[in-house]
Amino acid sequence: MSGDKSNFSTLDESFKDNVKFGNNSRVAVMGKGQVSIRVNEDFAHVIADVLFVPELKTNLLSIGQLQEKDYEVS
């Protein structure tokens, strides 16, 4: 999840949803798209299905969801 629209290389703003956090608060999802994550100077991974949550002040990355998509995390 990211609250920074400029992180997205593609963004479908017609996708709307809500996310519930551990403290039972909810925030609006205002889109879904792709974000590139730079691994080193020469390579970046494209992560799909990233949620755009404007209220977030920092990015959240789920290790479990990356592993479900066959990313190797070490």
Structure description:
By secondary structure, this protein is mainly beta. It has one domain. The chain has one helix and five strands. The chain has a three-stranded antiparallel beta sheet, with no helix packed on it. The protein is globular and about 35 Å long. The relative contact order is 0.29.
Number of helices: 1
Mean pLDDT: 93
- Helix content percent band: under 10%
| Unreliable segments of 5+ consecutive residues | none
Number of domains: 1
Strand order of the largest sheet: 1-4-5
Please give the alpha-carbon distance between the first and last residues. Answer: 20 Å
The main pleated sheet reads as: 3 strands, antiparallel
Order of helices and strands: EEEEEH
In brief:
Residues 1-71 form the Retrovirus-related Pol polyprotein from transposon TNT 1-94-like beta-barrel domain. This is Retrovirus-related Pol polyprotein from transposon TNT 1-94-like beta-barrel domain-containing protein. With 74 residues, this protein is mainly β.
Describe the secondary structure blueprint for this structure.
Elements: E1 8-12, E2 17-20, E3 26-29, E4 32-38, E5 44-51, H1 63-68
Antiparallel strand pairs: 1-4, 2-3, 4-5
Task: Considering the chains and any ligands shown, give keywords for the structure.
74 residues; two-stranded antiparallel sheet; 5 strands; PolX-like_BBD; Retrovirus-related Pol polyprotein from transposon TNT 1-94-like beta-barrel domain-containing protein
